[in-house]
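TL;DR need structure tokens for one chain.
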Amino acid sequence: MISLTRIRTKSFIFILVTLFQFSGYSQSKTASLQDVAFMQGHWLGNFNGGPIEAFWAAPAGDNLTGFMRMMKEDKVTMYEMLVFEQTANGPIVLVKHFKPGLIALEEKEISDRYSFIEAKKGQALFEKQDGSVRIIYEKRSENQLVIQRGKQEGGKWVFVDLFVFNRVK
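>> reply
TL;DR here they are.
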């Protein structure tokens, strides 16, 4: 004879599995560069009292490449090279910073590395390899792209707009 507790437990498990299957989540889905393809284009914003300009190429092969140029008083203050590379675990972001004269801020063989966390339409979340920072890339409208930086505060991730770009037409 089957106990009522056993029937309830099996019913509960069945309901959970069914909800999980139909909730849109999938353990087997691997993120791809298409999850960040919304960044493609030429973008312009302001940062630290000067213009910041970004260019993002369309995904090609196993990468999506972009760069940013930050300026103040008509002089470059920093360049940033960003490469999204496809891996078996989803895209990773590799970032290198350069001072004027193309002098690297990171060591020759080193780049900041961010691992893919999750994506939804027009948004992708990455976490720095050491877990200290999270970055959200978000297309808020057809003509606005925002990069947010997050850090842990009181056990929760708190994000602020780092760069707000408008599409250059």
